[in-house]
């Protein structure tokens, strides 16, 4: 299977002297859904920023595509003065497509994420979950091969979060995405992922890999199963060990 993103023995030291990563290595293969799980401040977001070209490693090697990559941040990062349509249109607008030229694609994507009725609404008029849907729609409109997601559902209530988890798996499958997802929730990691990479405390590195041997995408019924409870317990134990390793 083709490797899409690879970090090989990567280190990152900031000018202040803070070491964010040391010896971090990972691979994301074509069509995979891989989650980075780790304690706060361990460098999970830094790995995404390196993959996106927003940071440069101090040592080691980062291999990632120069294009065909979209980033969804923890906050929706919508323009408050623009409608949902205009926010989602932005990547096509920057690529030279007029509003009318982009209309079919934008409306199709809004339908995909369940926001057809809110094309003319403004971000302040939307719930937190709806704002995140708009942000994801904007990321997907560019038809990326790779989707990087930095705790996009962390601020949402549990019911909204579970619904978006289910929808995300459907989008990843239907669009053939390779997804690198960051969370500190063992429940989210167990449900979404094919592989979970557990990171140590700072300086961060991948110290464990857990394979999630369940059919993917997941059925919602998995959440109530004993298998899911065991997976969450396994990840919780790995997370505790990782936090202690970095202490």
Automatic annotation (TrEMBL):
Gene3D superfamilies registered for this protein in UniProt: P-loop containing nucleotide triphosphate hydrolases (3.40.50.300)
SMART domains in UniProt: AAA
Name of the protein in question: NitT/TauT family transport system ATP-binding protein
Pfam families: ABC_tran
Domain ABC transporter: 5-228
Keyword set includes Zinc-finger: no
PANTHER family associated with the record: ALIPHATIC SULFONATES IMPORT ATP-BINDING PROTEIN SSUB 2 (PTHR42788:SF19), TAURINE IMPORT ATP-BINDING PROTEIN-RELATED (PTHR42788)
MF-aspect GO terms: ATP binding; ATP hydrolysis activity
